[in-house]
């Protein structure tokens, strides 16, 4: 959350900063701002709301300078106002920050007593004030930053500029990711490769506790103990530079449509010549007696689906937890545990902290989309989901690719543990490789789903139901709908409805049921009848056989037939399209829904 960028350039830097912030806007869009040093003079411009407002401000009131830092904000401390927008300035110091300073109240009180009063509600301003106080005590900028960092508790990626210094930028990271680069007489700092890809072709990722002093021609990195260190430089993948909607109205639409191709790519990476292919050092499930899966949001629901698969195929107990609970619960990690962390961004703060809790206690597998991410780098085994860059805030193709990779992992567990016959394994591999084509077919019912969504957009509350591995999909359907359409939605296990939630049902509440024909179909139908008996308006999403047996539903959506075990991958598509078209019908901002950000790097 929050994106930061910094450039010591050869030319005017404002346009470069704004362009980089555009690429970082997925991290937050509550406000944006830049600061520059021009002939030794530090100044800044800030604007509330999306980046376009900052661009407008800069047209009216340009900001000259070849050295600059920029920020796009997802508000944590203090409302999204101009005063709370970054860069924050205290005297000769300007700073941009991604993260949370947990001891800022204490520091602020201490600084106030020394006459360094705060003007904003933010935690970040404390950082600038601290640095200012050390500079006024006679410290150089490097010394002031080193002393400031020692006082901070919490998570941060920072970039500093100083009045009077045209050729100096200082960067620091603890908890939040940050990369730097020196390229042909220019220096760069950025939250990720995406921000910097158009400017440089290589990056150095700062490690935990590192800070770096950059000029146009030099960089010195220090570790958490202020010792000079070297960190490797890595090439930026061409993928990081590609950011195009390809004719689609929204990133979300593009990413939904891409699913047959990216899923095929992911599956081909792990299934070759009708056999499973895993990294050489991938874990041996024969030595595992328990799997713990940890993630947040949509990635958590992917884990929840995988629990059904791993338990059923490999007869291996799986515990699934949300990272924000797991990290503080201090759960026992007995011998024989394997921990699996799933994250699209690979930067989610809670998931990373949960991983760090498991570090040294058990083998760690990371299922990630961004391969150079913090979670990928901290894991023992990385299984990339190969979804390509996901920009829409609502996760779509990453979810189905996570499911595909977790399906492969479940089959690997079954193979290692000898719980499937050769024929069963072949049949599963064959079915899985056919899923991308089925997804392409499922995308063909978009028109029907658009019509249903028009009716859904009138509702105030919507319920989603599913049984077995379709239950997490009901949760995912509800999450997708509420995050982009702002309609209140809840997902329930079909059988759980009568234990309370059915009290919500009346003729104003649509109930969306994901029910492919499977051994539990009859039971789900009974739950549906209970809803209809109370006036509930049922939308049944099922296959030909499932729909033929049902009458009196409000709407139906006909899906292709699919092997019941892998149905959640396919049924993700109607869940996504219903949410997308409901949001369109409501006129909400599909790609940048309110209050959300793509990469959740704070707790
Ligand atoms: C919902 C969504 C979020 C993320 C969650 C975890 O559409 O995108 O719920 O799934 O914030 O993010 P990652 O996967 O990056 O760890």
Spell out the key features of this protein:
603 residues, Glutamine Phosphoribosylpyrophosphate, subunit 1, domain 1, Rossmann fold, eight-stranded antiparallel sheet, seven-stranded antiparallel sheet, globular, binds fructose -6-phosphate, Glutamine--fructose-6-phosphate aminotransferase [isomerizing], transferase
Arithmetic mean pLDDT: 94
Bound molecules: fructose -6-phosphate
Shape: globular
Range of strand content: 15-25%
Taking pLDDT < 50 over at least 5 consecutive residues as the criterion, the unreliable ranges are none
CATH topology of the largest domain: Glutamine Phosphoribosylpyrophosphate, subunit 1, domain 1
Describe this protein's structure.
- There is one protein chain.
- The chain is α/β, with parallel strands linked by helices.
- The chain has 3 domains: 238 residues, Glutamine Phosphoribosylpyrophosphate, subunit 1, domain 1 (4-Layer Sandwich); 199 residues, Glucose-6-phosphate isomerase like protein, domain 1 (Rossmann fold, 3-Layer(aba) Sandwich), CATH 3.40.50; 147 residues, Glucose-6-phosphate isomerase like protein, domain 1 (Rossmann fold), CATH 3.40.50.
- Helix content is 38%, strand content 23%.
- It is built from 20 helices and 27 strands.
- β2 and β3 form a beta hairpin.
- The longest helix is centred in the C-terminal third of the chain and has 22 residues.
- The protein is globular.
- The chain binds fructose -6-phosphate (F6R).
- The site of fructose -6-phosphate has 14 residues, from α10 and α17.
- The site of fructose -6-phosphate (F6R) has 14 residues, from α10 and α17.
- Its main location: cytoplasm.
- It catalyses: D-fructose 6-phosphate + L-glutamine = D-glucosamine 6-phosphate + L-glutamate.
- Its EC number is 2.6.1.16.
- Keywords: Aminotransferase, Cytoplasm, Glutamine amidotransferase, Repeat, Transferase.
- This is Glutamine--fructose-6-phosphate aminotransferase [isomerizing].
């Amino acid at each position: 959350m929050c994106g930061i960028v910094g450039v010591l350039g050869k030319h005017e830097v404002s346009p470069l900063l704004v362009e980089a912030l555009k690429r970082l806007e997925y991290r937050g869009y509550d406000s944006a701002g830049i600061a520059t040093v021009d002939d030794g003079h530090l100044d800044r411009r800030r604007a509330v709301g999306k980046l376009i407002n900052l661009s407008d401000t800069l047209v009216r009131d340009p900001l000259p300078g070849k050295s600059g830092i920029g920020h796009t904000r997802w508000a944590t401390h203090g409302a999204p106002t101009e005063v709370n927008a970054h860069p924050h300035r205290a005297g000769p110091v300007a700073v941009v920050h991604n993260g949370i300073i947990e001891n800022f109240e204490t520091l602020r009180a201490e600084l106030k007593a020394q006459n360094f009063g705060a003007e904003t509600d933010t935690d970040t301003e404390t950082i600038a004030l601290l640095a200012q106080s050390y500079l006024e005590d006679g410290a150089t900028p490097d010394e002031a930053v080193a002393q400031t960092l020692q006082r901070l508790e919490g998570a941060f990626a920072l970039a500093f500029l100083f009045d009077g210094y045209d050729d100096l930028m200082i960067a620091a990271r603890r908890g939040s990711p940050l990369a730097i680069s020196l390229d042909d007489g220019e220096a760069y700092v950025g939250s990720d490769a995406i921000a910097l890809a158009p400017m440089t072709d290589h990056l150095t990722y700062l490690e935990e506790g590192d800070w770096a002093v950059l000029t146009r021609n030099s960089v010195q990195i220090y570790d958490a103990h202020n010792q000079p260190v070297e960190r490797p430089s890595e090439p930026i993948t061409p993928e990081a530079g590609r950011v195009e909607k390809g004719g689609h109205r929204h990133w979300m639409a593009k990413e939904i449509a891409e699913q047959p191709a990216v899923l095929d790519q992911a599956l081909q990476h792990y299934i070759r010549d009708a056999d499973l292919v895993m990294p050489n050092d991938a874990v041996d499930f024969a030595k595992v007696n328990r799997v713990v899966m940890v993630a947040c949001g949509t990635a958590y629901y992917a884990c929840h689906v995988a629990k059904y698969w791993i338990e059923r195929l490999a007869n291996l107990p799986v515990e699934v937890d949300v990272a924000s609970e797991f990290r503080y619960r201090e759960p026992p990690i007995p011998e024989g545990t394997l921990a699996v962390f799933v994250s699209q961004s690979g930067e989610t703060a809670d998931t990373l902290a949960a991983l760090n809790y498991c570090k040294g206690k058990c083998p760690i597998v990371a299922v990630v989309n961004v391969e150079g991410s913090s979670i990928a780098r901290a894991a023992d085994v990385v299984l990339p989901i190969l979804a390509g860059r996901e920009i829409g805030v609502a996760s779509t193709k990453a979810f189905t690719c996570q499911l595909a990779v977790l399906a492969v992992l479940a089959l690997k567990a079954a193979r290692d543990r000898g719980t499937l016959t050769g024929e069963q394994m072949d049949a599963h591999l064959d079915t899985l490789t056919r899923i991308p084509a089925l997804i392409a077919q499922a995308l063909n019912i978009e028109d029907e789903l658009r019509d249903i969504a028009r009716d859904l957009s009138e509702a105030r509350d919507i319920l989603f139901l599913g049984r077995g591995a379709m239950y997490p999909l009901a949760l995912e359907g509800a999450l997708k709908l509420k995050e982009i359409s702002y309609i209140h939605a809840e997902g329930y296990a079909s059988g759980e409805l009568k234990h309370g939630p059915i009290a919500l049902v009346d003729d104003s509440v649509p109930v969306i049921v994901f029910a492919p024909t499977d051994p539990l179909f009859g039971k789900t139908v009974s739950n549906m009848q209970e809803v209809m008996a109370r006036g509930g308006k049922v939308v049944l999403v099922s296959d030909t056989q499932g729909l033929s047996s049902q009458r009196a539903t409000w709407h139906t959506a006909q899906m292709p037939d699919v092997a019941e075990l892998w149905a959640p991958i396919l049924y993700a598509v109607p869940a996504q399209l219903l949410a997308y078209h409901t949001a369109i019908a409501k006129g909400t901002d599909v790609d940048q829904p309110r209050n959300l950000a793509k990469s959740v790097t704070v707790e």
